[in-house]
Amino acid sequence: MTNQRQEFFNLQDILEEFKSYIKSGVSQFDFVTIVGEGEPLLYFRIGELIKSIKAYVEKPVAVITNGALLSEKKKQGKS
Fold first, then answer.
1. CA-CA to 19 of 20 to 30 Å: which in 9, 29, 60, 67?
2. Highest taxon of the source (predicted)?
3. For position 38, what pLDDT does the model report?
4. 63: helix, coil or strand?
5. For residue range 38-56, what is the model confidence (pLDDT) as tens digits?
6. Across the strands, what pairs with 61?
7. Which pTM does this prediction carry?
8. Residues 58, 32: contact at Cβ < 8 Å?
9. CA triple 41-27-51, angle to 5 deg
10. Residue 39 in contact with residue 68, Cβ under 8 Å?
11. Which portions of the chain are predicted below pLDDT 50?
12. Angle (deg, nearest 10), helices 46-56 and 11-23
């Protein structure tokens, strides 16, 4: 367990997997959900991830979070 923000997975790897999934023919979904095996806001590139997903599909993006880090001034982007 950690409470340190870091890049747990390479951003480009995540985006390539997402794009591959969408290109596989999936067309019926209402929104993209980001959830992790921990707190998604610990991923310090979460802002970039959301922006990249929204640039690729015109669907809302939901982040499932416990909200523990929402009070911090710097929640997303590079740390």
1. 67
2. Bacteria
3. 82
4. strand
5. 888 888 899 999 999 999 9
6. 32
7. 0.80
8. no
9. 30
10. yes
11. 75-79
12. 20
